[in-house]
Amino acid sequence: MPTTTNDPEAFATGRLDLVPLRAAHAQEMARVLSDPALHTFIGGSPATADELRARYARQCAGSPDPAVTWWNWVIRLRTEGVAAGTVQATLSGPVAEIAWVVGTEWQGRGIASEAAVGLVALVGEVPGVRTVIAHIHPDHVASAGVARAAGLRPTGEWQDGEERWRVSPLGVPPAPGLFPAGG
Predict the structure, then answer these.
(1) Upstream peptide bond of 176 is cis (omega within 30 degrees of 0)
(2) Domain residue spans in the chain?
(3) Tell me, which fold does domain 11-167 have in CATH?
(4) CA 45 to chain centre
(5) How far apart are CA 126 and CA 39, in angstroms?
(6) DSSP collapsed to 3 states, the chain
(7) d(CA 166, CA 136)
(8) pTM of the predicted model as reported, rounded to 2 decimal places
(9) pLDDT tens per residue across span 8-28
(10) How far apart are CA 88 and CA 104, in angstroms?
């Protein structure tokens, strides 16, 4: 069973190996994340390998808030032996906030959905975690599909122009009417 240390455990799904993110992944991930189109909904622009190396080092050092745990993984395609994206979870008390990004070359193959489903299952095993949330841009249809595949549903709550999606409590289907129609 996972514990909330700053060092996440590696885990696997049917086609994917999710390995803890390290600064050493920066060069490979700079190539994976190099398409400016990836930033359409999240803003910014592709980071250089040096920028990613610095970001990954900060992320691996952990949150400055001792009540918050940051977990980050590289998504690796087992059969191809290549990185395809990242997933992350920020754990704070009973809530795990998750996010994902898959490089353009690997989109449309169900990789983000498979990784997100595995991530929700993993954080669901963390003692005390009862809710998983993600924030989805209202025009990002593919990301909404990933969230839906992972069991999250839109809440009608908004933060910084993105809708909060949630599954809570983990492992229990939501009661009828708990989420808006279409969720």
Answers:
(1) no
(2) 11-167
(3) Aminopeptidase (3.40.630)
(4) 19
(5) 31
(6) CCCCCCCCCCEECCCEEEEECCHHHHHHHHHHCCCHHHHCCCCCCCCCHHHHHHHHHHHHHCCCCCCEEEEEEEEEECCCCEEEEEEEEEEECCEEEEEEEECHHHCCCCHHHHHHHHHHHHHHCCCCCCEEEEEECCCCHHHHHHHHHCCCEEEEEEECCEEEEEECCCCCCCCCCCCCCCC
(7) 11
(8) 0.89
(9) 999 999 999 999 999 999 999
(10) 18
* Paired residues of 86 in beta bridges: 74, 101
Per-residue pLDDT of 50-74, as tens digits, reads 999 999 999 999 999 999 999 999 9
Structure tokens at 61: 């050092």
Q: How far apart are CA 167 and CA 173, in angstroms?
A: 8
Longest dimension (CA), the chain: 48
Q: Which amino acid is at 125?
A: E
- Structural tokens at position 69: 């745990």
- Residue 97 identity (one-letter amino acid): E
